[in-house]
# Entry
Amino acid sequence: MDHYFERLKNGTLKLHALEQELPPLEAVKVRRTYLETEQGISLARIGSFTMDIDRAVKRNIENMIGAVQIPVGVAGPLTVKGEFAQGSFYLPIATTEGALVASVNRGCTAISKAGGADVRILRDRMTRAPVFATRDVGHAKEVVDWVTQHQEELRKTAESTTSHGRFLGCTPYVTGTSVYFRFEFDTKDAMGMNMVTIASERLSEVIEAGTGARLVAVSGNMCTDKKPAAINLIEGRGKTVVAGIALSADLVREVFKTESATLAEVNYRKNLLGSARAGSLGFNAQAANVVAAVYLACGQDAAHVVEGSSCITSAELRGDDVYIAVTLPALQVGTVGGGTGLDTQKECLSLLGVSGGGDPPGSHAKKFAEIIACGVLAGELSLLGALGARHLARAHQALGRG
Amino acid sequence: MDHYFERLKNGTLKLHALEQELPPLEAVKVRRTYLETEQGISLARIGSFTMDIDRAVKRNIENMIGAVQIPVGVAGPLTVKGEFAQGSFYLPIATTEGALVASVNRGCTAISKAGGADVRILRDRMTRAPVFATRDVGHAKEVVDWVTQHQEELRKTAESTTSHGRFLGCTPYVTGTSVYFRFEFDTKDAMGMNMVTIASERLSEVIEAGTGARLVAVSGNMCTDKKPAAINLIEGRGKTVVAGIALSADLVREVFKTESATLAEVNYRKNLLGSARAGSLGFNAQAANVVAAVYLACGQDAAHVVEGSSCITSAELRGDDVYIAVTLPALQVGTVGGGTGLDTQKECLSLLGVSGGGDPPGSHAKKFAEIIACGVLAGELSLLGALGARHLARAHQALGRG
Amino acid sequence: MDHYFERLKNGTLKLHALEQELPPLEAVKVRRTYLETEQGISLARIGSFTMDIDRAVKRNIENMIGAVQIPVGVAGPLTVKGEFAQGSFYLPIATTEGALVASVNRGCTAISKAGGADVRILRDRMTRAPVFATRDVGHAKEVVDWVTQHQEELRKTAESTTSHGRFLGCTPYVTGTSVYFRFEFDTKDAMGMNMVTIASERLSEVIEAGTGARLVAVSGNMCTDKKPAAINLIEGRGKTVVAGIALSADLVREVFKTESATLAEVNYRKNLLGSARAGSLGFNAQAANVVAAVYLACGQDAAHVVEGSSCITSAELRGDDVYIAVTLPALQVGTVGGGTGLDTQKECLSLLGVSGGGDPPGSHAKKFAEIIACGVLAGELSLLGALGARHLARAHQALGRG
Amino acid sequence: MDHYFERLKNGTLKLHALEQELPPLEAVKVRRTYLETEQGISLARIGSFTMDIDRAVKRNIENMIGAVQIPVGVAGPLTVKGEFAQGSFYLPIATTEGALVASVNRGCTAISKAGGADVRILRDRMTRAPVFATRDVGHAKEVVDWVTQHQEELRKTAESTTSHGRFLGCTPYVTGTSVYFRFEFDTKDAMGMNMVTIASERLSEVIEAGTGARLVAVSGNMCTDKKPAAINLIEGRGKTVVAGIALSADLVREVFKTESATLAEVNYRKNLLGSARAGSLGFNAQAANVVAAVYLACGQDAAHVVEGSSCITSAELRGDDVYIAVTLPALQVGTVGGGTGLDTQKECLSLLGVSGGGDPPGSHAKKFAEIIACGVLAGELSLLGALGARHLARAHQALGRG
# Structure
């Protein structure tokens, strides 16, 4: 090992080149040990992993030194009444924040006692939007016109790059001399970013050749990937999912120790008015907590929490009962590819019955999205309830003191 | 074990109550095995963890069944010239997305070759904004006036709830009959959400008693926690950090195989114009990738990726050179509390020399934030370069075909 | 007159009912005089108008007391190279803010010297989006499905309500139990709000009858009318127009006394980075000034300045020259209806050659939109130039003092 | 006149130079007649104005050809219970859109019958935010630190430029190498843009001299002037005003022919959920209509409708009654300067008792702002009512058909 350390130290061997000389497990060990020695620290726990390292090194990580362990708990059973997910599920939640599992669990209890949450997928399309430079605004319009007139050709080009995906069309946007085409695809059980990027690169070549426009970047931020953006809130990206549940006054009292009207008021003053005044694109209580935790457990791209957690929570009184819903316009999820093949993540997916490709293709990812939306609903119910009840508690104390 | 299964099945024992009858490791095992049996699946890999389960069960997770493993790689060395972080660092990156480490690594190379990135923290304050209901708009103004006149009393109340934190003030916002106070705290080396929530609850009681306003929720979404919000982009939450680097034309060519002008153009058409037209609050290329990966490695709250990844990337030509900077208004990080005490996460923090509380208090969290900002800068450089060069490659091919 | 005053005073005659007893001019006079007497003020100047009062009272105003006079100046000649507007125009500018006409005029000079601005209309559709309440999220999806399947029926219904307009389709959006349909119409030379509202009311009845959804409001704010909204910035409302001009370094120096690079830098730091950090939906310098002034002169709905002034200004260096463009996604304009028939406003439209309906229908409104966009471009050039030069002036002074 | 035409035609006389050779009225006439001749049109109605042309030409307009007349109606009486405005007012409304006055009038009736609207001003500060370029992010922080340490000096500098205004402080924002200082002023009865711009120019010189930062533009768009921006929605610009009213169930039925619950539902599904999903910064029904119309009548800057119409409308059921409020964070108004001195506009201001400077200074502008906010509230009530009742009408018809 000293031999490698010396070369690493004098720069004749690059840290990332170790895999060229050693089998993965050895390379990872040398790299980790080198860092330990250099920094005078121990990375022993990071080194104590059990994952299939060949796959990880090939597909998921470079310069690997080991793995972090994130504890996983379950919330549930959660009763889901979707078009793809039907039945009771235990939601795997990977988090380091105490009380999150308990919070979601309480929401699951309410949902299941109420007979299950309705959930529907309203759109399903992964997007990529390259940006092109044109000579002037006249040229920009010509480029748009050309693309509009060559939709069929572009469809064929796009679908020639993928055996699974389907091209759903494109929307053009012109800003000055910059032209963006937001390509949309049905990517079946894959989250699909790679698929649409590859297709978009090929489409961009065709457009360049046909129009004289110059590709500046295969992603022009109107996709919009991993940034909060109104375009995703409005038009969706990945799956647009809505889940809702009617709770009776009795159930609200039993599970949340508060009133329906309180849940509605917390939603109104916090999630609607508070977010409005804050200039927020998120009108919810804790959607990100649930989305992040399920994404981590199930091998999703953690950076997709940014859009995935876009959520509008709505709450309407119906007499003494209340109907609460969550609208998630941009859930980007997959059950194949990315981190879904890692051992522990695969197990979490299997806990939901969605590991690997579905039959028909796309049905696993859709089922997964429906379950997540109901999980987010559970989280919202629970936090609205907790905020509401805490206040009531205080009010009761106040009365008690009187 | 069958004994527990039967009770779990018939509902006389709750899944989350196992720890009341069994030591943690046993409880986790029974719970996991129960799910395996019920669902007819294997969760063996999730069960093969090495973390200190007592701590995890007490502080980080409920209903635990095991852990997911997320591979960790390193990018670097990354040369940082901050006020708290100075020197070369290996950035721990936990991700399941192939090519991310390599991408950040290339950015680190550019930064280090250029002599290191400058980085500064401009603001540092964790916030919480309870929402109160008032009788009418006249009462709303009275409540604001009362709070404005009782700042010193509120400061004392706030600081009585914490031995570490410091109360920095509050900003009032009125929307109709709803009144929000955005409390600000210096939370030192803790990310601080718990600290400020506890203080805010106590402050809310004082305000209720003094004004007759009624607390609706201790978080009124003007905090804004875990939702993208302009208030954080503008005023910051946690640490507002800016990092920048001047790259010579030669260095750009050497590392990125492209030109300074290309980097600036990609930033202009993608990160600025593209995001503007998309109604985005994020003006960057891949800040979320880096923030998410470092947060995961280092035990940060994964849902904080939402605001943490808020980033405006700027790029200015200076002759043939280019100056590129990232502005991160809402990095919420801590080196104590939350997931920072878990074994593998603690090791990642120690790799950066920021595990545990700093001396003086707050210096570890600040150093950590500076390093992350430089890591984000590395990611931005790399992706701008890759997008720019991919185009050039195509242009070269096109010429070759001619 | 005293007779009316007495009844007005004791409430037996309502101020707005005067037209029922008196011819318009008399009613207006009695009303105005009554207010003068009551308040002890003079409204003589307001009373000294020349407009055709019959038309005004019938179509434009209720409870009329007279008119305000807003001074009108002209900027130009402005050379426009559009698809509908071609040639030189004098832009009528109604404003009370000194220096605005002069500012736009300077921009017109630059544009005309450079040979004229290119301008293109990219989309043209007025929208209205009713909101419906549904029973639950399952019902919400059924309603969307029903509408999707009845597009042809809806088209016929929509077009039965108008002799001019054309139904272009609709986009459904679901948020919890609320369903929005954003109907799109080609409204030809009319701005079209009334036309699309009438059509939307009829469409809403059909949808209610077909689906059991309950109409809550014929405008559900996803239109979005008279509020700044990303949906308009992204998808457009009314006409989406882009205008651009290439300026040589010499021309920039001659007209603006500054450099191309300075114009680009002001645009970059102010219009792009400044607006980004401010959480703005407007990325321009003074689009609202020009849009408001032309709208006022030409009888457009003044409240439409809100969306009409949505504008992204872009500026790109090309060697020593610069290309500057404005993108206006939501210009809602008409040359018939509303205030366009008032005498003075009609004259302003005729100054641009766009008074009344065009041949073919829609061509006047399109020509008008193209001219406005070039006027906005003139305003942007001028203010970027003024900001840039002011600084240079300071720099020169500084040098002079040295 | 032919003499001038010839020179205008051959370019030896510029259109805007006519005032150098002729008295204003003559110059205006020659200019107008020249355009009439050139374009073969009549501008006679534009030429038939009565305003004091000397003042207009000097302060309000260049290249004047006449004036447009905008009809003015009144809504009211409107009962206001503010801190500055108390009593009943007739609101002057200048508009070309039929039904607007009647709509606002109905809202005024409801408010007055309910005893008057409460209204409060929560903040009052006009802003201007210059942008500076710095060398690098380290320099950016130095510049911020310098300004933070020289507040007293800056205050003196700022106040030396104005006899009326008061410097209230500044907030620094850094984005990469760009530094913005958002200066805040109390501008008393003036809207104040000129005042703060002049002060900001002088402040910028001091900062340049003290720090080596380079002023790029005296407005860096974080002001934010005449663009919709979250910074104004959150922090306010000009006056932040909130107005509210409690309406009994009986009154709602009497005036609006609908139920309290319907008003609340329309507000919830349209103004809150609809605007949220549209990515809007405006959560109201028709604030822009009222703000635009009163601004026009009263000589305010029409482009300020963009921010002035920022409004969040809230509606809360209280048993069978309802409390409705409007929050206007950015009302920029003045009663001196700009268009307030024009004859007809001055009369409109006098109708509200706010023409010219108040005693104490600032009280007229504050009173004016309070009245506008109540006018906006009237417009909101009325449109919520109309939308709600239209539906009920339909429901009744439906029942009738059954």
